[in-house]
Specification:
Pfam families: Fer4_7 (PF12838)
Helix content: 25-40%
Order of helices and strands: EHEEEHHEHHEHEHEE
Structural class: alpha/beta
Distance between the termini: 48 Å
Largest sheet: 5 strands, mixed
CATH architecture of the largest domain: 3-Layer(aba) Sandwich
Radius of gyration: 20 Å
Number of strands: 9
Domain 4Fe-4S ferredoxin-type: 4-33, 34-63
Organism: Lachnotalea glycerini
Protein name: 4Fe-4S dicluster protein
Length: 247
């Protein structure tokens, strides 16, 4: 049948995975770092994935496509839930390059440690955390510590990958953390409310190099746009072996 269905332009896709998270029917999957429409009959043609795409890679088209199969989608969701419950705690790649297992070799570890000790005069292992809670899903929209704050919004894994995270990022910042791949829903609404309702001086985003972490960056950018405030912001990308790739 001829019907409306989504179209994904691979060359525009940055691999953030936001569309796959927004597609509750499971029609989109991340394959080799790119979003793919994997089942025509899973796509309802409503386009929930369109507004979350930061690059405009997704549009509508009318073409020959299998009819939307609600029963197949329900069965898929049921099977997916069962697999998650049965495999709780296990590592799944799911075609996402950000989940690919890898061993990390830290070269010149002793030399790096010496350089860190020489370049920092503060006490080792000192916590710089200024507030609690830190999870985006749990933090209140209004809190006294948000007033005149420098906001750090970080992906969970960054603090594990980057050795000096407290001193180089958390220090003098109000810290919010989350994982766009694991948490349900989008962060942009909550972050918009925080930025709108408080006097935020600056926003720093710290994300991992993996594609799925693009969802964190996208949520912050969307929140800044929605807030209608001109706030200095910065994105820092951390490699899986703990190096700063760009800022």
């Amino acid at each position: 049948m001829i019907r409306q269905i989504i179209k994904i332009e691979e060359e525009k896709c940055n691999g953030c995975g936001a569309c796959a998270s927004a597609c509750h029917e499971g029609a989109i999957a991340m394959i080799d770092g790119k979003a793919k429409l994997i089942r025509d009959d899973y796509c309802d043609g409503l386009g929930n994935c369109l507004p979350v795409c930061p690059t405009g890679a997704i549009t509508f088209e009318e073409r020959e496509a299998a009819e939307y199969d609600e029963e197949a989608v329900e069965q898929y969701q049921k099977n997916k839930k069962q697999m998650q419950e049965q495999s709780s705690g296990a590592c799944h790649t799911g075609g996402c390059p950000g989940s690919a297992a890898r061993a990390l070799k830290q070269e010149n570890a002793e030399k790096i440690e010496e350089e860190i000790q020489e370049s920092h005069t503060y006490a080792a292992k000192k916590s710089e955390l200024m507030q609690w809670p830190v999870q985006i899903k749990l933090v209140p929209v209004n809190a006294p510590y948000f007033d005149n704050a420098n906001l750090l919004i970080a992906a969970d894994c960054t603090a594990y990958a980057y050795a000096n995270f407290h001193q180089d990022f958390i220090k003098n910042h109000i810290t919010l953390v989350g994982c766009p791949k694991l948490d349900e829903g989008d962060y942009s609404e909550k972050l918009t409310a925080i930025i709108k309702n408080n006097h935020i001086k600056s926003v720093k985003v710290v994300r991992m190099e993996v594609p799925c972490c693009g969802g964190m960056e996208h949520a912050v950018i969307q929140a800044l746009k929605n807030s209608n405030k001109m706030i200095p912001w910065q994105v820092v990308t951390i490699s899986c072996d703990g190096k700063i790739l760009d800022n």
